[in-house]
């Protein structure tokens, strides 16, 4: 198939018509994750890896490192980490360890104007995820990610999503384009948890110390619990709710519109309180 051997690099998501994207995915289904990543490095524009250092993202980073070493080049895909200010300390420690292990460029983005948890809570209140979950997601994930993409001129990102994680991820393709025109690659889409874990152990990849305590999917402290052995790997995330995604892979424009509407409503309520006081 031409897409596998062509020297023509994709320069914009506008090239990826529905038919062309389908043909690429048909080809990528036949490849291993390592081969998919090699293809992506050679064909996708301004490629970065977004990661919260979950097991899938760690396996991906290790594969990229091996591709880079085979080519006698430094780590070929820079990392983007969104520090929500509510990560486990184990996750923050792992971010530094991965950067050092792979000598990988690491770009860290915080919620705008609030680089610390104290500053965030002074600005938005404590436990915002309870008061306004969508606004919380927008502030700690959606807005920082868009800011990262704009500042770094990101055109393509590698994610750690897999079909076996179920929920909204159950039918994801390997290559897709979101509503903003961002190209997304899901190189381990067809792997299950055991395949990822086997790769991690076999290749001595650094991983989160919480995994040894039974955690499989690790996000913010307040929304992550250790699942039982009978539960799926993401059942410990947002336990007790129907939520399966943090907003990072939802419609950006809808998330932004909802946040702006909620912000306007809060401002009007505050104004009314001052007027009647």
Automatic annotation (TrEMBL):
Phosphoadenosine phosphosulphate reductase domain mapped to chain residues: 47-225
Keyword Oxidoreductase in record: yes
Compositionally biased region (Basic and acidic residues): 218-237
GO biological process, one term: sulfate assimilation, phosphoadenylyl sulfate reduction by phosphoadenylyl-sulfate reductase (thioredoxin)
SUPFAM superfamilies membership: Adenine nucleotide alpha hydrolases-like (SSF52402)
Domain of life of the native organism: Eukaryota
GO molecular function: iron-sulfur cluster binding; metal ion binding; phosphoadenylyl-sulfate reductase (thioredoxin) activity
Keywords, ordered alphabetically: Cytoplasm, Iron, Iron-sulfur, Metal-binding, Oxidoreductase
Residue numbers spanned by region Disordered: 218-243
Keyword Metal-binding: yes
Pathway info: Sulfur metabolism; hydrogen sulfide biosynthesis; sulfite from sulfate
InterPro entries for this protein: PAPS/APS_Rdtase, PAPS_reduct_dom, PAPS_reductase_CysH, Rossmann-like_a/b/a_fold
Gene Ontology CC entries for this record: cytoplasm
Family membership: Belongs to the PAPS reductase family. CysH subfamily.
HAMAP family listed in its UniProt record: CysH
UniProt name for this protein: Phosphoadenosine phosphosulfate reductase
């Amino acid at each position: 198939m031409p897409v596998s051997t062509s020297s023509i690099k994709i320069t914009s998501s506008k090239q990826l018509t529905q038919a062309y994207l389908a043909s690429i995915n048909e080809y990528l289904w036949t490849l291993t994750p390592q081969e998919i990543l090699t293809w992506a490095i050679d064909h996708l524009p301004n490629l970065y890896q977004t990661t919260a250092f979950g097991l899938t993202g760690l396996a991906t980073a290790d594969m990229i490192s091996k591709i880079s070493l085979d080519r006698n080049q430094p780590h070929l895909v820079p990392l983007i980490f969104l520090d929500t200010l509510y990560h486990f300390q184990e996750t923050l420690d792992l971010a530094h360890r991965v950067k050092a292990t792979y000598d990988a460029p690491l770009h860290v983005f915080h919620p705008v104007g609030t680089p610390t948890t104290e500053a965030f809570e002074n600005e938005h209140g404590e436990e915002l995820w309870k008061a306004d979950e969508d606004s919380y997601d927008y502030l700690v994930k959606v807005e920082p990610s868009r800011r990262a993409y704009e500042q770094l001129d990101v055109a393509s990102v590698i994610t750690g999503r897999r079909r076996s994680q179920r929920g909204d991820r159950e039918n994801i393709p390997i290559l897709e384009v979101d509503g903003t025109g961002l190209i997304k690659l899901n190189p381990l889409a067809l792997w299950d948890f055991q395949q990822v874990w086997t790769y991690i152990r076999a290749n001595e990849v650094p991983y989160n110390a919480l995994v040894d305590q039974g955690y499989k999917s690790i996000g913010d402290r307040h929304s992550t619990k250790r699942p039982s052995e009978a539960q799926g790997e993401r059942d410990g995330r947002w336990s007790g709710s129907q939520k399966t995604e943090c907003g990072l892979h939802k419609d950006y424009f809808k998330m932004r519109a909802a946040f702006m509407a909620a912000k306007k409503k809060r401002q009007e309520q505050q104004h009314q309180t001052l007027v009647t006081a």
